[in-house]
Amino acid sequence: MEGVLLLNKPVGMTSHDCVAKMRKLAKTKKVGHTGTLDPDVTGVLPICLGRATKIVEYLTASSKTYEAEVTIGISTTTEDASGEIVEQRNVTSPLFKLQVEQVLNSMLGQIEQVPPMYSAVKVKGRKLYEYARAGIEVERPVRQITITDICLLGDVTNTDSLSKFKFRVTCSKGTYVRTLAVMIGERLGYPAHMSKLVRTKSGQFDLADCLSFEQIEMKVENGTLQESLLSIGEALKDLPKFIIHDTLSKKVKNGAVLELPSQFHDFEPGAPIVLYDDEDRCLAIYAKHPTKHHLMKPIKILMIEN
Predict the structure, then answer these.
(1) Annotated catalytic, 278?
(2) Do the Cβ atoms of 24 and 47 come closer than 8 Å?
């Protein structure tokens, strides 16, 4: 079993739970995920199997798209629906669509965000959620994030005490959408939390192409799961590509340093270049040499010489 499986992660499972389940279904220990999703979050979670575990770091996309629901009037410890209520305040005046859209538009571009206490961000060698569970408050690092697109989905629902609405956001890696929900609430003048979240896109991978665990189990039973996996080459198709001929294939498989092709001379050292053979098989990931800029060196050998 080898390739990248696009999983529609179900609610209630951690990314680690999904990896453990796939190990059993695919009968292999070589399984890894490409970006943590909280248990309450559903949607796109690429899972790497077999040799594809070597490319996990290249699939943690810089850009992701989410559809979120915000509940205005209640804040929680975890900033989502699973946490305990911290503050509750009635929304006395109904929120209007234009009002919400203006707040969303104010978040476009580069903004600062403080990660939630219940998160895996490390401070002094410990994850923030470890401090939170121990009841210890620590200073959290301010992060720069980028919101490239954000829009309201549908109307704002107003009840006697709460308001709810959905929005779609495309953002940089490392953005906490639940914190974004809290920030939106603050700009509207109320406590808030993220009540639902779906990741609809991660890099090139789309929710429409993902499989549920029920579908995966059926494919395992009828022996067709391998056909549903993306090849390593397909999964890396957004990275720069270079085709080499037979004479160089053996050198690449053995990890040789090569001349840097002219079209990559402007690349920064370390920027990945994916090498394929004449049969479009993905052989390795190379990068411009850090000191000898006319050369490129191997970063990951994906196909070994027999």
Answers:
(1) no
(2) no
Is 306 domain-assigned?
Answer: no
**Average of pLDDT values for 233-257?**
87
Spot the catalytic one: 38, 160, 238, 277: 38
pTM tops 0.85: yes
Asked if residue 290 lies in contact with residue 296, where contact means CB atoms within 8 angstroms, the answer is no
Mean pLDDT over the full length of the chain = 90
Q: Is the dihedral of CA 82, 83, 89, 95 positive or negative?
A: negative
The total number of structural domains in the chain stands at 3
- CA angle 43/29/230 to nearest 5° reads 45
Domain that residue 85 falls in: 67-194
Same-domain status, 71 and 188: yes
C-alpha angle 111-115-121 in degrees, rounded to nearest 5: 125
Per-residue pLDDT tens over the stretch 18-74: 999 999 999 999 999 887 888 889 999 999 999 999 998 888 877 899 999 999 999
